[in-house]
Design brief:
7 strands, single chain, seven-stranded mixed beta sheet, globular, 3 helices, alpha+beta
Length: 134
């Protein structure tokens, strides 16, 4: 079961779909909530769909720990979007967007409060998402 869109049954998270891979990282977000990124999600979803993220793995964790902006995901009620501004070597500013799901079933099963669903580069923060922080 890969990480491409449509690979999991609707409403099923990658944890519920049987991901027991080791974590790439476990950290506390800016509010102290525990967040995990699994190796399977990193390899089978993020790198598969966003291969440019290979050089930004450490930034994904920083994005969760020290975000510049946090917004509410427009489509998923338990998800938050973390944004971290990054200036590339060519002086172009990109935004790393990392989406974390805080579905309670994850907390009960895995002793974490949230898990990284995806991460990718954007040119700016999505202005249609409601700002939660700061």
């Amino acid at each position: 079961m890969g990480g491409k869109k449509g690979d999991y049954p609707p409403g099923t998270t990658w944890f519920q779909a049987g991901d027991d891979s080791p974590p790439v990282f476990t950290c506390a977000n800016h509010q102290g909530r525990s967040v995990v990124l699994s190796t399977k999600q990193w390899d089978d979803h993020i790198l598969l769909n966003h291969p440019e993220m290979a050089r930004y793995q450490q930034y994904v964790e920083w994005c969760v720990v020290r975000p510049d902006v946090v917004t509410k995901d427009r489509r998923h009620p338990f998800r938050e979007c973390y944004y971290l501004h990054h200036v590339t070597p060519g002086k172009m500013t990109l935004v790393i967007r990392t989406v974390v799901d805080f579905d309670e079933s994850v907390a009960q099963r895995f002793s974490v409060e949230g898990f990284v669903v995806t991460s990718h580069l954007m040119r700016h923060v999505n202005s249609k998402e409601a700002v939660l922080w700061p």
